[in-house]
Amino acid sequence: MKQFFAMFSRMKYINRWALMKNTRSENLSEHSLDVAAIAHAIAVMKNIRFGGTLNAERAAVLGLYHDMPEILTGDMPTPVKYHSKTLRNAFREVESEACLRLLSMLPEDMRDSFSPCFFKREEDEYLWRIVKAADKISALIKCIEEEKSGNHEFSSALCSIQSAIEEMNLPEAKAFLAEFIEAYKLNLDEQSL
What we know:
Blueprint (H helix, E strand, L loop, with lengths): L3 H5 L19 H22 L6 H10 L4 H4 L4 H4 L3 H19 L4 H7 L10 H24 L6 H13 L3 H10 L7 H5 L1
Helix pairs in contact: 2-3, 2-8, 2-10, 3-8, 8-9
């Protein structure tokens, strides 16, 4: 019996933003879907507008699985995860063990195909940068939604995430923000126009 996909389905039970007051909780499954869609779009923008030759579908798959280890580790809040180099290194080790455990839940003949979704390969380095940008954009969207609901708990996070995206220096991520992010501030009627 192999449990990989049963474990994958458990992402819906892992809530994000544990240290923040939320008007609506966001689970890991929702977040991963958003990251996959945004990573795909950013990779497409890179190819069409910035002369890239990326596999946009692969970017989407990497985004889909990027946080799956958190099923086993839980969602470590950013202030804790990045508090010190010692904590970050310890968390990387725990995360690596979680990845190995998840891979062991697949049939042996499938593991090599899934391994790059958990352990980064050199040839996917740029795709992982795009997934990281998509992850940050997804977090930015959460901040915008919370602010829109009158929750100012996310104000500082919104500013720091915007800065982090800028510092990534990915023109395709900036293009995504320029074209799509304002729509998240609209209500349904305004979006439908």
